Amino acid sequence: FVNDADIGTQLWDELFAKGQDLDVRAGCPNLIERIESGLMSFGSDMDHTTTPFEIGLEKYINLDADIESLSLPALRLHTPTKKLMGLVLEYHRSLSDVNVFVGDQKIGDIRSQAYSPRYMRRLAFVMCNLEALNGAKTVAVNTDQGQATGTLTSLPFNFEALGLKACRWTPWNTKISPVSLKSDWLDLCISQRRKLAYIAPICSTPNIVWSPLMNPELSITRLSTSNLSISRRTRATPFTSRVEAAGVQAYTIYNHTLLAANFRGMEDDYWHLCEHVQVWDVSAEKQVAISGP
Predict the structure, then answer these.
(1) Rounded distance, CA 254 to CA 284, Å?
(2) For residues 133 and 106, what is the distance between their CA atoms, to the nearest angstrom?
(3) How far apart are CA 268 and CA 218, in angstroms?
């Protein structure tokens, strides 16, 4: 944390100067990485009505603790009626709504979701009604291609237990020789990735390119706070000028403060986060000192 806003840009520049050999670049919280890691977001995945027992945090609660507490008496009497679970959909399809069904009965709603390019599955967090779910593991969701079935699992995702292996797709600007590209592997790419598969000839050469992006030509539109109304309700940060220079494409607002949400696309940002180093402006996080009896 920087206590003096005037040295914010100096710190930013120093981090980038020292990290050139690490391919450091500006980044931001990434939805794909968050869901793969099972990281929950307050306001999206749970709220003030949610208890730790309903989101898999019961191991951190000691109901027998001999301390003064406003919450412990209520938690001792509480019987969970809902539970946050993971959902795995086999194919890449766009969801039409957030409803989740067993048969014709709605059993829950999707709180967060993203397509994982590493595991070639759409992953989601679902808040399930335990009575309606009745122990079922196979559920259905509505997609742009009709209903699709998925599997419910506990959080965080255990990809090994689910039989899913991590993979890394070839960047769109890397040429692959057809001799080394087996047809069955190519068929797998097309069938699993569906809309995200892109195959095209490069000019008149015999090489081909395969891209995990819907559009292989990545266009970066720079966003500026000049398009935003900065006030006491929406604040810039000591690093905002550097974030804009790095090509931020989108902001979200958190604690009345700008928080970068996208630079080169969610998937491109994701792979860079997994394999290199990013500097995030998280000035939206606040330090709070609490004192009292």
Answers:
(1) 6
(2) 9
(3) 10
